[in-house]
Amino acid sequence: MLASHATLRSAVRVNALLFCAVTAQILYRPPHKAFAAQISEPVAEGKRLWIHSGCDRCHAILGTGGHLAPDVTRTYAVRGEAWLRAYLADPARHATGRRMPNLRLSPSAITSIIAYLAWASQIGTAGWPPAPQGDAGEAPRGYEMFLAQHCDACHTIQGRGGQVGPDLTQEGARHSKEWILDQINNPRNHRPDSIMFSFAQLPEPDKNNLAEYLASLR
Hints:
Layout: H1 2-27, H2 31-34, H3 41-52, E1 60-61, E2 64-65, H4 75-79, H5 81-89, H6 91-94, H7 107-121, H8 140-148, E3 156-157, E4 160-161, H9 171-174, H10 177-185, H11 204-215
Antiparallel strand pairs: 1-2, 3-4
Helix pairs in contact: 3-7, 5-7, 8-11, 10-11
């Protein structure tokens, strides 16, 4: 009987310790993970403008927002400030597919929104969403270009993406890198009635990385 009571008391102590440990883990949030110290006035204003302008109705950022247009959590890291500034000032000049409406943002508003996007791009998302996996020769920069040019708005890879265009999960098994490059430059060379936009205006290194990545998918 005494042994049973001792065992019970030990079990209660262990459960109490486990409860305390789990509670502490839930309640403790290291400041650097929230990037609270980096929420400057431009960042806060950028978030306000992001919501006020309705950007969140179409775009998701850090898992919050709409899904009618690409997720922009990593857009600053991929595109950079100069491209974002030009795009937000005149989306039609830089569109390669569906056009975002021109919100007629002032230069100061654009600066604030860019500050918000730059802040968001620094937050670790534990590798989510994961990059689709290809062969050992997969080109990570090509995948970044795939996202930066919003190819996923029309094409699916491993179950993620749009369904307007063909599924590219095994594109490398169907077509060579040379064929893919030709498709990127002039889609109607392969199919006269293709609705895909030409990406011939992209720099050659970017097109090469994109083609190499797609050719690796098998």
